[in-house]
Design brief:
It is built from 3 helices and no strands. It is mostly helical. The chain is elongated and about 95 Å long. The model has no long low-confidence stretch (mean pLDDT 85).
């Protein structure tokens, strides 16, 4: 029995690694493309809003009208900023999720390879090495368990963060709406 990797196995391993790198690169480019489109659309919208707001401000006839206009302009700006932040967060979260899936599958493949190599080594190991092989298998199982626990904890933290971001975003929008309504009533 040979402990060397056959050329076919080496080629298959390299092909799988190239495919993984291509998957990661495609995910990165897709995220960059989505972020670029978001930024361009946001820049266009800001420019259009700026022109419209400037025209509206030039048409103001008195201070009271200016106060009302400022109040009415604040809310849409905050809402658009919040929408932009949500979009960026969604894109980055989806990108991170795609990368995590690829990495998890890579870890699973590595674990299979290590288990297979360990089984092969155990078959050709000298008598009495059962304890050492069992210890290595136990260490691998413990490492995999720790990895799974950390992965679950990271997912929980991401979910909590997402919930907190959503709550903070909603609170910000409500605060701006309340402030705009209060300022509108005072101006009237």
């Amino acid at each position: 029995m040979s402990n060397f990797i056959a050329p076919e196995q080496f080629a298959a391993s390299n092909k799988a690694n190239v495919e993984t790198m291509l998957t990661l690169a495609n995910a990165a480019f897709a995220s960059a493309e989505r972020l670029t489109a978001l930024n361009l659309n946001t820049a266009r919208s800001i420019m259009e809003d700026g022109v419209a707001n400037t025209k509206a401000m030039l048409a103001v006839k008195d201070v009271q009208e200016l106060m009302n206009l400022q109040t009415s302009l604040a809310q849409p700006i905050v809402e658009k900023a919040v929408a932009y932040a949500r979009s960026v967060y969604e894109i980055t979260s989806q990108s991170q999720e795609e990368v995590s899936k690829v990495m998890e599958s890579q870890v699973a493949e590595i674990n299979k390879g290590v288990a297979s190599a360990l089984d092969k080594a155990a078959k050709s190991a000298p008598a009495g090495s059962d304890v050492a092989v069992a210890a290595v298998k136990s260490a691998i199982a413990a490492a995999n368990s720790a990895y799974d626990s950390m992965n679950k904890a990271a997912k929980q933290v991401a979910e909590m963060t997402e919930a907190n971001v959503a709550a903070a975003t909603n609170a910000t929008v409500k605060a701006v709406n309340t402030t705009a309504k209060t300022a509108g009533k005072k101006a009237a």
